[in-house]
Amino acid sequence: MIFEFVTTTLFGGIALKAFLKKQNLIENDSGKIQRIISLSSLNVKDGKDTLTTQLVSKKQHDWGWEYKYRIPLGRSFDDYLSKQNAIADGLKNRSKRITFNDLKLLNFNDGVVNLHRSLWKKKLAESKEIELDFDGLLIVRVYNEPLPKQIPYQPGTQWKVPVGIIRDKNAFKYHDFEKIPHLTLGGATRYGKSNFINCIINSLLQSEPDNLKLFLIDLKGGVELCDYECIKQTESIAYEPEETLGTLKIA
C-alpha cells in the first residue's frame, strides 16, 4: 500500500512535469538569460562565426541563483549593465513559467484542480530581482524575492551602527564611524530619515555610552530629538535656527 502510494505520487509528479515542459511552461533561468542577451544584440559577429555569452557555472543559494557567463571578445561589462533592465524585465515575465523547484513544493494529494490553482497563484505573485557583477566572468544573481521591507534588528558594536541589507547577496551592512566619521542621509518626506537617525543614536548609546558626545540640531522644534535632551551624552541641542550657531561652535 505504501509502495503504491509512493510510486503513484512519483509518477504523477513526473507526468505533470512532462506535460508542463511539453506545453513550454518550464524554462530554466540560465537559458532564458542567454536568450535575452542574444535578443539584446550582445552577441558578436566574427567573420562567419557568432560569439555568444556562454554559461560557465550556476549555483543555488538560499536567496536565489547565481549564474556565471563568459562574455565574448569585443564586449565589456558596461555593455551588459546597459541591458540590465531588459534582463530583469524578461525574467519577471514569468506568469506562465514553472520551475522544477515549484513542482517539488506541491502536495500531489490535493488533486489536479488545486495543484493547478496553487501553481498559478504562486507564479502570478512572483517578483524576481537581478544583480549584475563582474570578476572576469559576468555574474548574474537572480533573487527569489524582492528586498524585504522589514528585517530583524542587528545591534552594532563599538562605532559600527546597523544600516540594513543590500541587494548584493542580501548582506547586512554597518557604517563604521571610526573609519568614516561622516554620513550623509537624504530622502523624501516620510521615508524614514528620522527613524534612521534615531537608530544610529540608540545604537551608539548602547555600544559606546561612555565615549559618545551628542551635538544635536532639530529644526522641527524638537519633535524628533527632544528625548535626548536630558541624557548625559548630549552636550548641546538646538531647536531653532538662532540656536544652531551656538551648538555648531561648541561641537
Question: How would you sum up this structure, described in words?
Answer:
This protein is α+β, with helices and mostly antiparallel strands and 251 residues long. Helix content is 35%, strand content 21%. It contains eight helices and ten strands. The protein has helices at residues 2-22, 29-39, 77-81, 84-92, 100-104, 112-124, 193-207, 241-250; strands spanning 44-46, 49-51, 54-61, 64-70, 129-134, 138-143, 160-165, 172-176, 214-217, 234-238. The strands form four sheets. Strands 3-4-6-5 form a four-stranded antiparallel sheet. A hairpin with a 3-residue loop joins strand 5 and strand 6. Helix 2 crosses helix 4. It starts with a helix and ends with a helix.
List keywords for this structure.
10 strands; single chain; elongated; 251 residues
**In percent, how helical is the residue content?**
25-40%
State the end-to-end CA separation.
80 Å
Across the major sheet, the strand order is: 3-4-6-5
Assess the beta-strand content as a share of residues: 15-25%
| Quaternary assembly | single chain
The average pLDDT is 78
Outline type: elongated
Radius of gyration: 27 Å
Biggest sheet architecture = 4 strands, antiparallel
Contiguous runs where pLDDT drops below 50 for at least 5 residues: 19-26
What is the structural class? alpha+beta
What is the string of helix and strand elements? Answer: HHEEEEHHHHEEEEHEEH
- The total of helices stands at 8
Count of individual beta strands: 10
